Amino acid sequence: MSVFRFAAALAVIAALVACTPAIPPQQNYATISGVVTDGTTGQPLAGATVTVDSVLTATTGSDGTFSIANIPVGPFTAVESANGFQLHQDQGNVAAGDHFTLNATLYH
Q1: What is the per-residue pLDDT across 28-68, written as a single tens digit (0 to 9) for each?
Q2: In the chain, at which residue ranges do the beta strands (DSSP E only) sit?
Q3: Fold of 29-106
Q4: SS3 breakdown of the chain: % helix, strand, coil, rounded to 5?
């Protein structure tokens, strides 16, 4: 009889474990987004490149906006560039799950 109780208890434990929702993994990344503008005209700058930590890159759309996901947590360096404009560099720090806004102005 004790073997039966042990097997029944094991079955109940297995059922409880199977029904327990999984804990989602901690998000270890952030997103950086913003607008790149022309410092002379103040207009959005289409086709500019934003590079984070020399690895992750995005190109701005016609409205000057960009978004880069999967930025590792911690400090970062972003470089914004466009043909005919001086490079611009920004630094920041992101935590897990952050949506960091980075707006940049480029000058000729």
Answers
A1: 999 999 999 999 999 999 999 999 999 999 999 999 999 99
A2: 29-38, 49-52, 56-59, 65-72, 74-81, 88-94, 99-101, 104-106
A3: Immunoglobulin-like (2.60.40)
A4: 15, 45, 40
Question: Which residue, 41, 47, 56, 50, is CA-closest to 102?
Answer: 50
Among the listed residues 99, 105, 63, 55, the one whose alpha carbon sits nearest the alpha carbon of residue 81: 105
pTM across the whole model:
0.76
The DSSP secondary-structure symbol of 44 reads B
Domain-by-domain residue ranges, the chain?
A: 29-106
